[in-house]
Amino acid sequence: MQKKSAVFSFMAGVALAASLLPGAGAVAEPAPVSVGLIAPMSGIYARYGQVMRMGAEMGVKDVNDQGGIKALGGAKLKLVVVDSGDSTEKAKSAAERMVSDYPDLVVATGAYLSSFTLAVTEVTERAKLPMLTLSYSDLITSRGFKYIFQTSAPAGKQADIALPSILELAQKASGKRPKTVAIVTDNTAASLSTVKALKDGLLKKNGLELVVDETFTPPLADASSLIQRVRSRRPDLLFFLPTVISDAKLILEKMNETNVKVPVISFGIAIAEPEVVNTVSPALLNGVMSAVGNWGAKGQEALIQRMKTEYKEPWMTQNAISTYGDIWIMKAALERAGKADREAVGQAMHALDEGPSPYFPGGVIKFDEAGHRVGATLTVIQWQNGVPVTVFPEAQAVAKPIWPGK
C-alpha cells in the first residue's frame, strides 16, 4: 500500500509539473491551409500580378480575421505566391515548380494573361489542383478539364454582351448608329478570342462592317502604320485590344498626333491601369470605354478605400477585385469540402451554390460542368475626368456613360 502511494505521489507530481509548462492545456492550433497565386511578378506584366497579389492579401486577411475555415477548426489561410514570369514558357515552368515545391497547396488562382493561364492549367489539371481564373479566353474551359474555374464571362460572351449596349449608347448620344468599325488588336489569347467572336458573326449580327483589321505583337515599337490605316478608312468605331500599357499609350498618342477622331472601345484593362493616366493626358482618355471582366463598383466602396490607403492605389481594377473574390470562393469550397485536400476542394467547387456574387458582375457563385461561373456578365468602364469608372451594369454603375466628343 505504501509503495502504491509513492507511485501515485510521483505521477501526481509529474502531472502538476506538466500543467505548469507554458501553453499547457491549450488546444493545438490547426495547421494553416496553403492557397496559391500564380501571376507575373517580374517582366513587362509584373504590374498586373502585383495588383493581383494585393487583392489576394486583402482576401486572406479578411478570411483569417473572420475566423478562418470553420470546418477545419478555424484554420488560417496561408498565401503562396509564385511568379509566372512574362512568357508562356516561363508560366508553364513556374506551374511545374508550384505543384512540386508546394505539395500542401490545395487551390490556386491566376495567371493573368489567357495565354499564361492556358499553359499553367495544363500543369495544374494533371496535378488535380483546382484553379480559379479571371482570364477571358474561351479555350480555357473548352478542353474538358475538371479543375479549372473561370469567374469572368468568356471573351466571346463579353463581346456579345457589350456590343449591343455600346451601339445603343452611340445611337442615343450621337443621333446615329455606327456602321463601320476598325479592329486593332495584339495577338494574346484573350484579345484574339474577342476578335474571333466579333468576326465570326457579332459584327454582322449588329450591322457593322469591318473596314480595318490589324494584329500586332506586344510590345509595339511604332503605331504609325496601324493608325494610318485607321485614318484612311475613317471608321465609326475603333475596337482596340491591347494588353500592355505601353501599347495603349503609344496608339492613343499617335491618334492624337495624327488627328484621328474615332470613338475608342477597348476590351480588357490595359487602357485603364493607373500608369496610363500618369503618362497620357486625361483629355485624350476622356470617353474611352472598355469592356472588362470585373471592376471596383457600387457596393465595394470600403474595399476601394482600402486599396487607396493600404496600397496607395487610386482605384480598384479587375485584377484586385477578382482575386479578392477568388479567396472567398476558396473559403466556401474549403468549408464544403471539410478537409484541405485538392480533389475534395475540386469536387466542392463544382457543388458550390452560394447565391448572388458580391465581388463579380452578374450571376451567382456557382459553376457549370465546364467551369464557367453561372450567369457571369461583364463590366463596362469609361474614362471620365481622369478616372475609369463603372458605367455598366446599371445596378453597379457609379456614373452615367457619356459618348466621346459629346
Polypeptide structure, described:
The protein has helices at residues 2-19, 46-65, 88-101, 114-126, 155-174, 189-205, 224-233, 245-257, 274-279, 282-285, 301-311, 318-337, 342-351, and strands spanning 33-39, 77-83, 107-110, 131-133, 148-150, 180-186, 209-216, 237-241, 264-267, 289-292, 379-384, 387-392. The chain is of the alpha/beta class and 406 residues long. It folds into 2 domains: 33-153 and 299-375, Response regulator (Rossmann fold); 156-292 and 380-396, Rossmann fold. The strands form 2 sheets. The protein has a 7-stranded mixed β-sheet, with helices on both faces. The chain has a 5-stranded parallel β-sheet with strand order 2-1-3-4-5, sandwiched between helices. Helix 4 (114-126) links the parallel strand 3 (107-110) and strand 4. It is globular and about 70 Å long. The termini are far apart.
Please state how the strands of the largest beta sheet are arranged side by side: 7-6-8-9-10-11-12
CATH class annotation of the largest domain:
Alpha Beta
Major sheet description:
7 strands, mixed
Output the CATH homologous superfamily of the largest domain: Response regulator
User: Architecture of the largest domain, CATH level 2?
Assistant: 3-Layer(aba) Sandwich
Output the structural class.
Answer: alpha/beta
Computed CA radius of gyration, to the nearest angstrom:
25 Å
Helix percentage range: 40-55%
Structural domain tally: 2
| Overall form | globular
Q: Strand percentage, roughly?
A: 15-25%
* Count of discrete alpha- or pi-helical segments spanning 4 or more residues: 13
The strand count comes to 12
What order do the SSEs take from the amino end to the carboxyl end, as H and E? Answer: HEHEHEHEEHEHEHEHEHHEHHHEE
Question: Which regions have little confidence, pLDDT < 50, spanning 5+ residues?
Answer: 1-12, 14-20
Would you tell me the overall average pLDDT? 90
CATH topology annotation of the largest domain:
Rossmann fold
User: End-to-end distance, in Å?
Assistant: 103 Å
